Structures are given as C-alpha cells and as structure tokens.
Amino acid sequence: MLVVGLILPWVRAADRLKCGDNLRKIGAAFAEYEKASGGLPPRRTGLNNGEPYGGEVTGGY
Q1: Which string of DSSP letters, residue by residue, matches the chain?
Q2: What separation, in Å, do the N-terminal and C-terminal C-alpha atoms of the chain show?
Q3: Among 2, 31, 35, 59, which lies 20 to 30 A Cα-Cα from 24?
Q4: pLDDT the model gives residue 8
Q5: Averages of pLDDT over each 10 residues, the chain, 61 residues
Q6: Measured between alpha carbons, how far is 58 from 12 in angstroms, rounded to an integer?
Q7: pTM listed for this prediction
Q8: Residues 26/34, Cβ–Cβ less than 8 Å
Q9: CA gap 36, 41 in Å, rounded
C-alpha cells in the first residue's frame, strides 16, 4: 500500500504532462492550419442537415 501511495503522484503528474502536451499539439495544429489557409476553420453550429462536417472544410488537416 505504501508503494501505491508513492507512485500515484508520479502517475498523476505524468498524466498532467501528457494532457498539456496534447493541448500544445492542438494549438500548433491550429496555428499551422491558419498559416496554410489564411484563417481558422469555420465554427460548427446547429445540425449539419445531412452534409458532412469538416473534411471538405479543413482540407485534410
């Protein structure tokens, strides 16, 4: 039980680090998309009325 108490904070810290890295990658992807296309992707609002979301708008990003 003592070992679990010692390891758990390290596991949580690793999870926070991984989450922060994922957010950094998402931000970098948005910046790269904006640089390549001249703007950010349009917002999704409401229903898609049978039309696909995203693929044709983001150009494969």
Answers
A1: -HHHHHHHHHHHHHHHHHHHHHHHHHHHHHHHHHHHHSSPPPPP-S--TTPPPSHHHHTT-
A2: 46
A3: 59
A4: 84
A5: 80 90 93 90 65 58 56
A6: 34
A7: 0.56
A8: no
A9: 11
Q: What count of residues does the chain have?
A: 61
**Separation CA 14–CA 43 (nearest Å):** 32
Q: Can you read off the two tokens belonging to residue 29? A: 């992807």
Calpha distance 37→53 (Å, rounded) = 17
Domain residue spans in the chain? 6-36
Cβ-proximal residues to 54 (8 Å cutoff; 6+ apart), any chain:
41, 44
Task: Round to whole Å and give the CA distance between 19 and 58.
Answer: 24
Q: CA 5 to CA 35: how far, in whole Å?
A: 46
